Amino acid sequence: MKTKVGVVSLGCDKNRVDTEVMLHKLVEGGYEITPDAKDADVIIVNTCAFLESSRKEAIETALEMASYKQRGSCQKVIITGCLGQKFGDEIYDEMDEVDAVVGAYEYDKICNIVEETLHGGRKLYNSCNDGLTAGSRVLTTLPHVAYLKIADGCDNYCTYCLIPFIRGRYRSVSMESVVREARELAQNGVSELILVAQDTTRYGKDLYGESRLVELLCELSAIQQIKWIRLLYCYPELMTDELIGEISANSKVVNYVDIPLQHVNSAILRKMNRKSDGESIRKLFDRLKSAGISVRSTFICGFPTETKETVAELEQFLHQYKLRNVGFFAYSKEEGTAAAKFDEQVPERTKQRYVKQLYKAQQSVAEQLNQQSVGKTYQCIIDEEDGRDDEFYFYKGRTYFMNPEIDGLVYIASRKPLRIGSFYDVAITGVAEYDLIGEVV
After folding, report:
1. Nearest C-alpha neighbor of 412 from the set 371, 374, 440, 379
2. pLDDT tens digit string along 275-295?
3. Shortest CA distance to 285 belongs to which of 293, 273, 277?
C-alpha cells in the first residue's frame, strides 16, 4: 500500500503555489495524497510566519495534526515553509511533537524528507534562502484558476515587515520558465491566471536590469486558452503609465489590480519606508480611475504615530476614490523589524477601534458601488454550480473586479446549463451584501 500524505497549506497565495509544487512532487514520488488528516500516515503543514498571528496559527495547526499521532492514525508530522525557514531552530528545539522542520527552499527534496522522517529520527532541514520554487503542480484552486508565482523575496524592507528576513532578496523567475508553466496550466484547463509575487511590478529587474512585467503580460496573453490575467501585489510607485496602458488595452488583462497601499498619510508612509507619499498615491488613483481600472487594497491601522487625524485622512481617501475591495489590518509589532522599536506605539484597543471605523466607512462605499452595478452587464466566469429549480440553473461566478476567495461573488441564474470555467455576459439584477445577483443575457 502507498504511504498516504496529508498536506495543510497556510498563509498567502504564494505559499499555496509552493504547496501545489510539493503535492506534485509527492504524487510523482509514489505517495498518495489524502484530503483527510485522520487517514494520513504523514501530515505536512506548510506554514506562514509573516505575523505573530500567523505563527500562532501555524503552531496550533501543527499541534492539532500531531494529536493524530496519539490516536494511532498518523506516524509523523512535518512543518515546512516560512516558519521553518525563519524560526527552524526554535521550532525544532521546542516542539517535540513535530518530527521534521523544513525551510521554504527544500520542496524539491520533499519525497526524500518524508522517507527519511518515516524511517529515521527527528531532523532539521533548512538551506539558505536563494532558491525558487517552480515546476508542475497539483492545483488546490478551482480547476480553471491558477496562481502563477513570478518572483520570490523582497528588496523593499518596509519597517513593519519580516518577509525580506524570511524569503531573502527579490528573485524573479525567468520569463521562459513563467511562460512554460503558464502553457502547462493552460493545457490542463486553466483559463484564469493570477500573477503573484511579493512585488509583481518589480518583475524582471534583477534579471534584466528593468521591469519586464508588461512584456510578460504580452507573452502570457499569447496563450490561446488563457482568457483572464489578473495582477496582485503591485507597488504604487511602479504602476507606470506603460503598465496602466497595457492593463487598459489588453483584452486578456482584467481591469483590476491589487495595490497594498498600507496608508495614505505621507509621514506614516515615510516611517513605514514606503516609496510613495500621499500626493503621488492620489495622482496614481486619478490615473487608474480615468483608465477604468478597479483597485483592491489593504491598509495597516494603528502603525506607530497613528492618530485619529491620520485615520480620518484615510477615511476621506476611501470616500473620495471609492475602492470596491479593501482589507484593514491592525498593526502587528514584529520582533526583528525596525518599527518594533519605534516610539508612540498605539494601544491594541485603539488599533482595533480604528479597524472598525474604517471597515464601517468602506462598507458604505461598497454598498454604493454594488447598487450602481444593478442594471449593468458584466462578463463573468462561472466557478461552480449552485443548484437548480424548474425554471433556472444557478451558479456562482465572478466578474473582473472579483478575485477568487477574497472578493465578492455573482450569483447567476440561467435558463440553460452553463459550462464551468467559461465566460458569459450577465445582467446584474440585485445585490446581496458584498455580492451581486444576475441573470445570463
Report:
1. 440
2. 999 999 999 999 999 999 999
3. 293
